[in-house]
Amino acid sequence: MNQNRRVLLKGSLAAGAVGAAVSAGLLTPKAVMAAWSKEAFEAKDTNAALAGAMGSSDTTASDKIKLKAPDIAENGAVVPITVTSGIDGTTNMSILVANNNTPLTSSYAFGPDTEGYISTRVKMGKTSDVIAVVKAGGKLYSTRKEVKVTIGGCGG
Amino acid sequence: MAKSIKLRAKAKDGVATVKCLISHPMETGLRKDKKSGKMIPAEFIQEVTCEHGGKTVLGAEWGSAISKNPFLSFKFSGAKSGDSIKISWVDNKGASDSLEGKIK
Questions:
Q1: Shortest CA distance to A94 belongs to which of A33, A137, A39, A46?
Q2: Domain, as residue range, for B28
Q3: pLDDT tens digit string along B44-69?
Q4: Partner B contacted by A92 (CB < 8 A)
Q5: pTM
Q6: What is the count of residue pairs from A and B with beta carbons less than 8 Å apart?
Q7: N or C end of chain A: smaller count of CB under 10 Å?
């Protein structure tokens, strides 16, 4: 219980630090988009994380999203993920790892000329589904793939 | 935090492919220091932004589940060789860095 309180305190302190940097004019307003979705990133289940990041957890499975991830990841600390969205008008994308402590790894907002393509590397605690969620025309589409992890990458 | 970003951008048929590597510890705040037994405080990048020609082409929000020394690649159209792009990041402690590079 106490441990949780500490973590929460630290979290709010850190958020305060970012706020201070903003108000001190260190960051241009452009660099600070919508405030970092703290709730979405700290959500412990996939639906809550999605609702926070994308506004809804109601997704439609789509085969137009290509999710490239290894079948077996030897090292869960570095799992390469590539998501390509073939859906026109893709505006946002989120990548989630269902069985992670906090499933939301990252979310992206695309400019009008940006293609629906993201490649990055994520941490996975254990074998889990990787879920790519794409927002296009206000609707959510998703695709998932299971990645087996032999050595976890969260915690030491 | 100078020079934490490595950037490669290439334009082909008007579409630029940007790849960047950022050196950052990306601590989750859940790990313990083996020697002292204390928790290592969280330190991870929260926001990454890429600008091209004064417009934001990509705004990314990251959580602690992005790997250490993060890699990010994305594509956008309407770019030509010689254009400059700017990548910047901010972490949860308020540290930040940015780099301007040219598209090849």
A1: A46
A2: 5-102
A3: 888 888 888 888 888 888 888 888 88
A4: no
A5: 0.75
A6: 147
A7: N
